[in-house]
Structure prediction request, 101 residues.
Amino acid sequence: MTLETPTLAAEQMDPAIRALLPNYIRRRESDVETIALLMSRKDFKEIGRLAHNMRGSGAAYGYPKITELGGLIEDAASSHDVDALTALAEELDICVKQMRS
Prediction:
C-alpha cells in the first residue's frame, strides 16, 4: 500500500464514502496551507484543533496515514514543538500530494 492508495480498494468502499473522497482530499490540501499560516502566527491551539479533526477522519476515509499524522501534529501542537510541527507539516504535504496523484 502506498500513501496515495486508500486501505480499501475503491470497489470495496461504501459508495457514499467513495463519492466524498475528492472533497476530503481537497480539504487536506487546504489543511496543509492553513497549518503553514497558523504556524507563522504560532496559533498552536488552532493547529491542534485542525489536527484533531484529521486524526478522527483519516481512517474513516481509508487513509490511516492521515489519522497517524493528525495525532502526531496534535501532540506537537499541544507541546508547542515548532521543529516537530515543521517536519510533520512537510510529511503531511507529501502525503496529500500522493493522495491526489
Remarks:
- The helical segments are 15-41, 44-57, 64-78, 82-100.
- The chain has a mean pLDDT of 90.
- Residues 15-100 form a domain with the Four Helix Bundle (Hemerythrin (Met), subunit A) fold (CATH 1.20.120.160).
- The two ends are 14 Å apart (CA to CA).
